[in-house]
Specification:
The structure holds 2 protein chains of 2 kinds.
Chain A: H1 11-16, E1 20-24, E2 27-32, H2 37-46, E3 48-52, E4 57-63, H3 70-81, E5 97-103, E6 109-116, E7 126-131, H4 136-147, E8 151-155, E9 160-165, H5 169-174, E10 187-193, E11 196-202, E12 210-215, H6 217-229, E13 233-235, H7 238-247, H8 274-278, H9 285-292, E14 299-305, E15 316-318, E16 324-334, E17 339-346, E18 356-361, E19 364-371
Helix pairs in contact in A: 2-7
Chain B: E1 2-3, E2 8-13, E3 16-21, H1 23-29, E4 32-36, E5 43-44, E6 49-55, E7 59-63, E8 68-73, H2 76-79, H3 83-86, E9 95-99, H4 111-119
The chains are: A alpha+beta, B alpha+beta.
């Protein structure tokens, strides 16, 4: 049964800008604008791209009763969400954002998400949570169920979420959001725009410095137009968003990671809170600990395809002897490297950068080798 | 030049047909980054896979619009696949087929009919 596609508040602006629209996560979204994927990708790496990511799942989880002691209230709200996820939320400092994973009982990745702790003393006991479009209904249900009686989840996916990414993003955003240049990557603040409080996070999924701005619908079209009026800025579709995140070595949920993949297999061990793992206070802790100790059958790697066509999702990966050892989970053509790149899973013994493999594309074997991730260096701003 | 509903073009000279994709198709494909061409000598029937064009985000098949044997391929596309976007209906040709029945091309659309077809999309 197909449901009518949802549209974001910026839909009309996309149509006016010549966007080609496709279904993604239940929404009708721009896959590219007039420039096309290749130019949009390179523009973001060199200047600044804006992306409508309003299909994602922003939300706020707030304690039903706060004590007024900010740190105690933060620990209390962290305790509501932590049983569901891989990471440590209690240790977040005010304003900090962390990438983490929703896990099932087998340690599989239900979704990957961002969680932020508010800056202001008056908003402690609240978390800003952004989940993926395709998984959001399930994620929100899980969080609501876990929070029952203690905290309340308020969806904010009726607002617009605009990503501003690239080396010129900081200068562009600081001109519209005073103070946005004063905090580093993986931090956020509430900053007013047109009289509305916006959640402004220095974050993104392109490998570049940038921001993701949550803005209420009435002001969002004006903000979008104002961003585009800046000559450093162009609109970028989901096509380039995907090639940018692939070059950045960032996994896409539902493709590179899913409910069968553990954080260790996915090479996302950094997102697992080691003290919570040690205490086995984590879903799937037994499996995750076993895999972390080396009992692992597959691991996510980057692949450079050295000849022939791009190897895309589903292509088989074979070892030097021609034996199939894994599968590509996302792949395509890297505009920055002018070469095909991919990510996929292989046995740990074949996972070291430089390991010679092959990929099977339309029945033909093409040589490939394991490459260190990211393919293109991250340029996150860590000091201001 | 004749056209198909799959947006291929065919130009026949004698008993050899040159085949490519139309400007409309090239625009829809986006920036072409890789082209896979058939081996010379391959015999194709109407609707067989003739070539594959890849953009940054997807691979698309090009089907044989007419039956014949591949007698030449445009090897320049291997090094400069962007020619498919720049000159789709001339320098961006994919393959030349020796036709078993040159008259079969008359069944395909002429430019007016193809333009009219594009108007319905």
């Amino acid at each position: 049964m197909s449901q009518p596609l949802k549209r974001t508040s910026l839909y009309q602006a996309h149509v006016a800008a010549g966007a080609r629209l496709v279904e993604f996560g239940g929404y009708e979204m721009p896959v590219q604008y007039r420039d096309g994927v290749l130019k949009e990708h390179l523009w973001t790496r060199e200047h600044c791209g804006v992306f409508d990511v309003s299909h994602m799942g922003p939300s706020f989880l707030t304690l039903n009763e706060t004590s007024g002691d900010g740190d105690a209230d933060h620990r209390a709200i962290a305790a509501v969400i932590e049983p569901l996820i891989s990471g440590d939320i209690a240790s977040l400092k005010p304003g900090q954002v962390r990438y983490t994973l929703l896990l099932n009982d087998e340690g599989g990745i239900v979704d990957d998400l961002m969680i932020g702790r508010p800056v202001s003393a008056g908003r402690q006991g609240r978390l800003y949570i952004v989940v993926n479009a395709g998984a959001k209904e399930g994620d929100f249900a899980l969080i609501q169920q876990a929070a029952a009686g203690r905290a309340t989840l308020a969806r904010a996916d009726d607002r617009a979420l605009i990503a501003v990414q690239g080396p010129e993003a900081a200068a562009v955003v600081a001109g519209l959001f005073p103070g946005a240049g004063e905090f580093t990557f993986m931090h956020h603040r509430r900053i007013d725009y047109a009289g509305e409080g916006c959640a402004v996070a220095r974050s993104g999924y392109t490998g570049e410095d940038g921001y993701e701005i949550l803005v209420r619908a009435p002001a969002c079209v004006e903000l979008w137009e104002r961003l585009l009026a800046d000559e450093r800025v162009r609109p970028i579709g989901l096509g380039a968003r995907d090639s940018l995140r692939l070059e950045a070595g960032l996994p896409l949920h539902g493709h590179d990671i899913d409910e069968t993949t553990s954080p260790i297999e996915a090479n996302l061990g950094f997102a697992v809170a080691k003290p919570r793992l040690k205490a086995r206070a984590l879903r799937g802790a037994e499996r995750i600990a076993r895999e972390l100790a080396g009992d692992l059958t597959r691991v996510r790697v980057g692949l450079r395809v050295l000849e022939g066509a791009p190897a895309r999702e589903g292509a088989e990966i074979a070892d030097a002897g021609g034996q199939v050892v894994g599968r590509v989970t996302s792949g395509g053509f890297s505009p920055s490297l002018s070469a095909p790149i991919a990510m996929g899973f292989v046995p740990p013994a074949l996972s070291a950068p430089g390991a010679r493999l092959s990929v099977i594309v339309r029945g033909k074997s093409q040589s490939a080798e394991v490459a260190a991730l990211p393919f293109v260096p991250h340029r996150y701003v860590r000091t201001v | 030049m004749r056209f198909t509903k799959d947006h291929e073009w065919v130009e026949v000279a004698g008993d050899v047909a040159t085949i490519g994709v139309t400007a409309y198709a090239a625009e829809q494909l986006g920036d072409v980054v890789f082209v896979e061409l058939p081996p010379v000598g391959k015999a194709v029937k109407v609707g067989d896979n003739l070539a594959v064009v890849e953009s940054v985000k997807a691979a698309s098949d090009v089907y044989a619009p007419i039956a014949g044997e591949v007698v030449a391929v445009n090897d320049e596309l291997t090094g400069t696949p962007e020619t498919v976007n720049a000159e789709p209906e001339s320098g961006g040709w994919f393959a030349k087929l020796k036709l078993s029945d040159p008259g079969a091309v008359d069944a395909l659309m002429d430019r007016d009919a193809y333009e009219a077809f594009l108007g319905t999309l």
